[in-house]
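Subject: complex prediction, re-run

Hi both,

The earlier run crashed halfway through, so I resubmitted it with identical inputs.
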Amino acid sequence: MSRKYHVATTVNGDEYEYLCEPQQTLLDVLRDELMLTGTKEGCGTGDCGACTVMVDGTMICSCLMLAVEAGGKKVETIEGMAKGEELHPLQRSFLELNGSQCGICTPGILIAAKALIDRNPDPTETEVRYWLAGNLCRCTGYDKIIRSVLAAAKEMRGA
Amino acid sequence: MISLKYEAPSSLGDAIALLARASGTSRVLAGGTDVIVQMETDLIEPDLVVDIKKIPELREIAVENGGFRVGAAVTGMELTDHRGFCRAWPGVVDGVKLIGSMQIKGRATMGGNLCNASPAADSVPALIAAGAVARVAGPDGTRDIPVEGIPIGPGKTSLSKGEIVVSFLFPPRPPYSGDAYLRMTPRTEMDIAVVGVGVNVTLDADGVCAAARVSLGAVAPTVLLVAEAGAALVGSRLDAPALDRLAQAAAAACRPIDDKRGTREYRIKVAGVLAKRAAALALERARQNP
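This time it finished cleanly. Structure:
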């Protein structure tokens, strides 16, 4: 057995401490230790984007970061997106425009879409498609996802 | 996995010492987009992982003697968000932008892309065309070696035990210089190069090519620096005959394999075509950089 590492980190503004083994990924710890199961595992090798989270303001695949690396970082997951009962405009837009079907890819896509809009409030359709190239969806054919993101961006700009 | 140890030293000396005295399998962890995949899929079972991201000199982008020094553990996202670097080396940025998704670029580094030693690594042909020099630190001291001296075969580097790539030095840009990297893939995103070409040119005041470096990826066991392809451009205005000579020299240097992404013949043909296109883009950028 590998020794356990003590890690203190912030997830969605709350302070967490956990013990992890060095080979455990951030995704493993979020889901299995912190019980934050909104973040999904798809491929586990960084191809599908289902496990997308923000770490210190940068979007990453949580399956490709060791949990021990998260010490002192600010992690943001899908659980932090709605403010209490109030959904984020992206979440409402995905509901209204059917941007989600089976739902496995949705948390990762919402995190990625929010990261895009935070950088670029008025993205073109092409920019949305390229930005989300690392988020695979096997249900929607992407069109409704793209429309949902563009509609939410428009609403957030107050346009 | 029997017993894995994770260390995140804050000094280069400590990192080198950890790696130098390690027994068993050890790995340097930068962005982890290759190393963690290899661990997750049981391709490697390291006993020691040394995370180098807490070492300051590996994380900096600095101006040095009129050029840029970029830490080996600077992420793709940090590099492509750096305006000064993007202006000076758009071709290197082309290559880095093609490394995986936005999520991957949030973690992946040029140091990792180089040391993973894939012949299809997207940033490496651009680094070689740029004439970037890697600073390598190890138990016996520090040495500066051209980037093309690092990979020696698929997954293999010339680094010895305890050595770490610390940073890359990009030389100062003379006026009328431009670089470009293009790759051929069946789809536009999230794919691995069938062929990649990096071209870096400098023109004189009359628009004649004074210097050129051409590098090819995914057509040999390592990324290649093709001196003959660069020489085909020097002294020309990158007109059609010069571009034809470039394409012939590029194709002649290819020693590719057949695989699911492309046949040998296809790769050789595409290397020439892509070299011409990359040279045309580098030329356009050079003209805009008085």
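Chain B touches chain A through 29 residues (CB under 8 Å).

- K.
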